[in-house]
Amino acid sequence: MKLKTKLRLALTFLFAVIVLLGSLGAWYLKKLSSEAQEILKDNYISLEYVRNMRNVIDENAWKNEDVALFEKSLLHQEQNITEIGEAEATQQLRSHFNALRKSPDSSRIRLIAQQLTKLTDVNMQAIVRKNAQVKKTADEVYSYMVLIATVCALVAFSFIINFPNTIAEPIQQLTEGLQEISRKNYESRLGVERKDELGEMARAFNLMAEKLDEYEHSSLARVLFEKRRTETIINQMNDAIVGLDESDYLLFVNSTGAEMLGLDASQLAGKYAPDVALKNDLLRTLLNDGTPLKPLKIVTNEREGYFTKEVLEVKNGEQRIGKVIILKNITPFHELDQAKTNFIATISHELKTPISGIKMSLKLLENERIGPLNKEQKHLLNQIQDDSQRLLNITGELLDLSQVETGNIQLNFRSIHPQEVVKAATEALLFSAEQKQIELHCQLPADLPAIQADLDKTMWVLMNFLSNAIRYSPEKSTITVEAQVGHDQKHVLFSVQDFGKGIESKYQERIFDRYFQVPSNGQSKSGTGLGLAISKEFIEAQKGQIGVESELGNGSRFWFQLPLA
């Protein structure tokens, strides 16, 4: 027989029993309901008023309609005091509400909420007390119902003995099987051998468990394989890699990173990184949020290496779940850069000697005792002299650049008067300015304090500013050279103002970069693009600052400031 037929027969019998018990129960419940209605009427209404007032507090809008609703409910409550202690709580509620209407205050709202809670407790206790009275009546009804139910139970006894096991046992087995599945025991199987619906359900469950077992083992093996492969790749990388979670606990450190840190990678996982960094300077540097301006120099296996730090934030959507710190090995590039710097220094130094020889020969050729020169020969000599001077300037800049790149800038600090710097620079370039009929206008207060600086390097920077200003200024114009005490009263500010075509704003941020030259619209360029970059290094090496202010069509103002002596 199908389970459906069995259930239908059993339910038909149960329906008959239910109708009988329901009819009797309805009659008695109606009797109890009428008694309970009278007992609980006053308390339920009070709770309804309290609920309305609490809704107003919870919304916390206190609009006119909210105040009116609260007032209305409070008035009804004042007229429905039936329990001991209810009158006192209602009176306190009225007092706090009136005070709140005069001066809104969050503390008053809390006091009102407390009184509402007290009213709720008083009425609930009354309901419990009165419910006990109803329960006494219900117990009497219960006795009658038990008597009637016993008669029905005797009739249904045969069904209780035979029918429950038909459904209960398979369901119990299914429940136990589902519990095993919830504990990820996918090897659990049901042993129900039936040909009804419960048998089909058991077979479907066994098939599901089998598929889950296959999926669990295959997925776990694949995840473990991918994890091992990822760890192998990370460990074989030449870059040091450190992984941290969102709370800065170490997740992993590859073998290269552990070697640099001088720690055992297997013992680092799960440890709090700042605690480990207390005894490890390199890890403390890596955990620092700032990015080093220069490559990190790290000695491993008695060999120097250079590394750049890179931090990758790991996010799940907008949530930060960790970060990865990478030390990229740039030692080969650093060695090439060092070789380039040494090459430039060597070539520049070697070129200065023949160029100086050329200039000396030019001086001899210009001497009329060697022999007179015609116009064309003088013109060629002037061109050769200009080119040799340009080559000499370039080699000088390259030598200065090699000093900057190797960090071997030699500074001779002493107390210098700003007038001394300005006078030397303007006198050196006075001839170049006169050739373009440019007037050099100096603004120097007589009481300027001395600065602590290197005279040669400072004068070189100011001459570079003046040389550029002369080059880009129109003929018969004016260049202003100014020195004044800075706004902070701790520096002297030097500036060179020209009235040439100016520099576009998009180029001003790069004007102090090496080899950068502002586009000149097809005009021939002069210089190497190193002068301003070297100037920046010279000023910053003296703990000063450098900058430019320019507006297209209104000229440029280059400035630097150095600390007082």
Automatic annotation (TrEMBL):
It catalyses: ATP + protein L-histidine = ADP + protein N-phospho-L-histidine. Residues 226-271 form the PAS domain. Its EC number is 2.7.13.3. Signal peptide: none annotated. Residues 165-217 form the HAMP domain. It is a multi-pass membrane protein. The chain crosses the membrane at residues 141-163. Keywords: ATP-binding, Kinase, Membrane, Nucleotide-binding, Phosphoprotein, Transferase, Transmembrane, Transmembrane helix, Two-component regulatory system. Pfam families: HAMP, HATPase_c, HisKA, PAS. GO terms for molecular function: ATP binding. The keyword Nucleotidyltransferase does not apply. It is found in: Membrane. SUPFAM superfamilies: ATPase domain of HSP90 chaperone/DNA topoisomerase II/histidine kinase, HAMP domain-like, Homodimeric domain of signal transducing histidine kinase, PYP-like sensor domain (PAS domain). Residues 346-565 form the Histidine kinase domain. InterPro entries: BphY/WalK/GraS-like, HAMP_dom, HATPase_C_sf, HATPase_dom, His_kinase_dom, HisK_dim/P_dom, HisK_dim/P_sf, PAS. NCBIfam families: sensory_box. This is histidine kinase.
